[in-house]
Design goal:
alpha/beta, Quinone Oxidoreductase, Chain A, domain 1, Rossmann fold, 2 domains, 7-stranded mixed sheet, 6-stranded parallel sheet
Length: 297
């Protein structure tokens, strides 16, 4: 089968399409025939060597939508099931940017019935990150949240999930994105590069602003980042931390249901053939992408 991999670190040109053996699922695992897989910034980090692994073949791709075509024992899934899944890991030899991928059965959920595979593939990493970050912040109805990078994929899902919980959301984004983030449920807006007028109960810092964003939180509030180990030190009684996304099929099933109900809005910027993975990486590197880039085998 074909798989997008890197064997040397570098720019988009480092992405190779390799011919590899089709993986076999073990106990508690399923094999998915990939229908669509999202390209995320973490894939660019793996390609560039941010996470190490020199001298190894590293697979790319964390998100997947597709069809179960083989299952190990005790999985609860059967061939023909339409699923989405998060294939977590920065050192996998094969990722979801491939014709097939093997994942733990517990990482999978039934695909949203109302979405195309390309749309469904944008859910796992970004929606789970948003949901788990909000869990970490532990806000209550009526409290205030500022989301940096609010027009991005994680930021957009965070706005929608928080608004559904009755949290007052302020979006921090580029001036041209105000209409978008308000359509997702933000009731306040702060143009990027300016300072919020009043402190908030919590900040979800998907733009990785760091200490400056922490300063916008009230005393005894909370801050959550999206890069593990990179959160600023606590101050003024503000809890600080960073979410490290975890595969969770049960939670992903809830998010899929919310997508079917229209609570979560998926956004695709462009689709590419798997064989054009390097071109997709080049587009991601250009920046300014609104929505996700999706690879189709």
């Amino acid at each position: 089968m074909r798989a997008a991999v890197v064997t040397t670190f570098g720019g988009p040109e480092a992405v190779e399409i390799a011919d590899v053996a089709i993986p076999e699922p073990g106990a508690g695992q399923i094999r998915i025939k990939v229908a669509a897989a999202t390209l995320n910034p973490v894939d660019a980090g793996i390609r560039a060597g941010v996470f190490g692994g020199a001298g190894k073949q590293l697979g790319l791709g964390w998100d997947v939508a597709g069809t179960v075509d083989a299952a190990g024992v005790a999985t609860g899934w059967k061939p023909g099931d339409q699923v989405i899944a998060l294939h977590y890991g920065t050192a996998n030899s094969l990722g979801t940017h491939a014709d097939h991928v093997v994942v733990d059965a517990s990482a999978a959920a039934s695909a949203p019935a109302s979405l195309t595979p390309a749309d469904a593939a944008t859910l796992p990493l970004n929606a789970l990150t948003a949901a788990q970050a909000l869990d970490q912040l532990a806000l209550e109805r009526g409290q205030s949240l500022l989301v940096t990078g609010a027009a991005g994929a994680v930021g957009g899902y965070a706005i929608q999930l928080a608004a559904r919980l009755g949290i007052e959301v302020t979006a921090y984004a580029g001036p041209d994105d105000e209409d978008l983030v308000r359509s997702l449920g933000a009731t306040g807006f702060v143009p990027r590069g300016t300072t919020p007028a009043t402190p908030v109960d919590a900040v979800l810092d998907t733009a990785v602003i760091g200490a400056e964003a922490l300063s916008w939180v009230r005393d005894e509030g909370a801050y959550a980042g999206v890069i593990p180990g990179a959160a600023p030190a606590p101050e003024r009684g503000v809890r600080t931390g960073a979410v490290e996304v975890a595969a969770d099929g049960a939670r992903l099933a809830e998010l899929a249901r919310l997508a079917d109900e229209g609570v979560l809005t998926t956004r695709i910027a462009q689709t590419y053939a798997l064989t054009d993975a390097a071109k997709a990486h080049a587009r991601l590197a250009e920046g300014g992408v609104r929505g996700r880039l999706v690879l189709i085998p």
